[in-house]
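User: Show me a protein chain along with its predicted structure.
Assistant: Here is one chain, sequence first, then structure tokens.
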Amino acid sequence: MSAALVKELRERTGLGLLECKRALASVGGDVELAIEELRKSSGMKAAKKAGRTAADGVVSARVADDGGFGVLIEVNSETDFVARDESFLAFVKSVVDAAFDARQSDVAALMSGELEATRAALVQKIGENIGVRRIELIDADSGVVGFYVHSNNRIAVLVKLKGGDQDLAKDVAMHVAAVNPQVVSAADMPEELVAKEKEIFRAQAQESGKPDEIIEKMIGGRVKKFLAENSLLEQSFVKNPDMTVGQLVSDAGAEVISFVRFEVGEGIQVDKVDFAEEVAAQLNG
């Protein structure tokens, strides 16, 4: 079992070396499967996500003055230094404005003309690879769209409401940015994800040695807690923990239809390079 895999599993779980090596060996070196097995056997609640902020850059959003629609984009750079560069940020603004004006969510279509030439020139000037990763467009239909961009430009959210106004949508978007719910309501949670959590909870509960009927009640309670913690409407509102987001929206006579949350670099995997090994390889070469 490679040391790199063991190191990654230790970093993501906080568990011991031998425990991580055994877990990896039991699943043929698959880190994600090893994490699932460790959660079952050790009672570990969760593991750190791999590669969520591996790539740098910024996110940006723009919404129509009347809340009729909004766009959300992510533009990546190789370093946070470039992500703060004025030329890079000017390019990001030109991209979000172009996507807004054209109501365009297709990256390839948006970047097929002048914007691509601007990007290529910026790459030559700065010396880093720069790319538009994704664009999301939300139409309000008969409702309203609001947005929130965190001050460091690394998290941005669009929220679509039925009823309410842009101020309410912004409050909900701010909550989504801070807490990162997976779905709007518990009913929206994918069945396969709930089934996987049940399997993990069952494995953990069986370690207690309690009767089957008690174990089933324990599993039911844990699933209910999992859904509440990850469903937007059931979460305590960050600006007023005495009420849920669902209550906040309902009191305003509104309904959350959907949300989109972008965080810079989430889901991007990059190769981890050992600097000493890299230097040695260059000298040997």
